Amino acid sequence: MTTPQRVESDLGWALGRVARAHLRVAQEQVAGLPGGPRGYQVLVAAAREESSTQLALAQKLGVDRTVMTYLIDELQAAGLVERRPDPADRRARRVVLTEAGGARLCDLERRLREAEQHVLAPLTPEEQDVLRALLRRVAEVDPDTASACEVARDLAQEC
């Protein structure tokens, strides 16, 4: 008979523990942002996607389109994004980062990177880079994997 392994050797336990720690420090950094973590994801997507419509953002981030409307309303009211008509489809609106939104995003990215450094402190910078690369590869394997918003929501309910 083999001796059972300690819980700390279980991949699920380790991933859950790291994910909860990351979520906790990340939520602290985006606490004042409209929509919190979801608002941050919209800012990132608006900055990196050239012609993202509300619908495209909702689908990409796994957010209900009605919820996305309210989220973008809040970000727009804060002066962080604007809706602009899509020249290819007058019914659609592109979500575009404002100058203030870009500045806020830069600040949030810096603060989140510092928070990540705190979570990953036991690793060398090289190990951190390897871990990030490996996690990106694993995350891309299953196209049915929940969106970052769903993962964050589920983990927040566990805390």
UniProtKB/TrEMBL annotation:
InterPro entries tied to this protein: HTH_MarR-typ, MarR/SlyA-like, WH-like_DNA-bd_sf, WH_DNA-bd_sf
Pfam families given in the database record: MarR_2
TM stretches of this protein: none
Chain ranges of the HTH marR-type domain: 8-140
Protein name: MarR family winged helix-turn-helix transcriptional regulator
